[in-house]
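Renewal narrative, Specific Aim 1. Our central claim is that a sequence can be written position by position from structural information alone. The example that follows is taken directly from our test logs and has not been curated for this report. It begins with the structure tokens describing the chain, in the order in which they were read.
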């Protein structure tokens, strides 16, 4: 939520939520902090600040965005009106993102309304053992789409071509090796040493080529001599002990 909402606001999307405590409030604050627009849909009259603890937040939303409600001024919220409010949130948006939801959460009501309207439903997963994430995981087992940041949300609800960037982990030193050197390195076992001839056979190259690559890998710290053979250079573990394998 901390990354997703500000990112959507910076992309020009209006963040719509219900001004409630928890995720709703975090969504509005995230949009406001990024200088974006946000809309609060209330389960009461627009002149009634509910919950009262969010009176200041609702005021900021009114200044920087929009506060709306179906009910006449001075009407107060009831349990059934929150359910009705959620269907309005679903209708106003291109997609609904569920961040935290128990099995009987109002967020799931919003998601089901969005699905009936043919809108996108998305979920941000949480710990598998958390009851607060049980509803999100149930949504993802059905028609919901897993998202982790603003770019992935925009890819679904945006225009054609609004693609999220490709995801990949950090670049490791071995990722910078050329294909031939990488094959030779992969030919070494995780434990123990092996002869240059066996390495060449496993890597599918000549003995001379393999030997040249091994000396190159040695200079880079990936491998070391072990008698008549070669082995991977031990690396320290997090606890300080040796571990087999190149950088």
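The sequence written for that structure reads:
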């Amino acid at each position: 939520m901390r990354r997703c909402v500000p990112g959507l606001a910076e992309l020009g999307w209006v963040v719509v939520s219900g001004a409630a405590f928890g995720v709703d409030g975090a969504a509005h604050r995230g949009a406001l902090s990024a200088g974006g627009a946000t809309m609060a849909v209330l389960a009461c009259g627009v002149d009634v600040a509910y919950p009262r603890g969010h009176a200041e937040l609702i005021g900021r939303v009114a200044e920087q965005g929009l506060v709306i409600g179906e009910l006449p001024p001075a009407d107060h919220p009831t349990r059934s009106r929150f359910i009705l409010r959620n269907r309005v949130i679903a209708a106003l948006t291109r997609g609904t993102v569920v961040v935290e939801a128990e099995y009987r959460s109002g967020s799931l009501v919003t998601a089901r309304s969005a699905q009936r309207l043919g809108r996108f439903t998305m979920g941000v997963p949480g710990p598998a053992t958390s009851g607060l994430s049980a509803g999100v995981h149930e949504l993802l087992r059905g028609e919901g789409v897993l998202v982790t940041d603003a770019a992935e949300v925009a890819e679904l609800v945006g225009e054609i071509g609004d693609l999220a960037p490709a995801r990949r982990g950090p670049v490791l030193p071995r990722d910078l090796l050329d294909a031939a050197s990488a094959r030779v390195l992969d030919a070494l076992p995780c434990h123990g040493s092996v002869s240059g001839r066996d390495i060449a056979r496993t890597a599918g190259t000549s003995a001379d080529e393999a030997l040249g690559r091994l000396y190159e890998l040695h200079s880079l710290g990936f491998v070391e001599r072990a008698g008549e053979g070669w082995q991977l250079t031990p690396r320290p573990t997090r606890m300080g002990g040796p571990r087999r394998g190149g950088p």
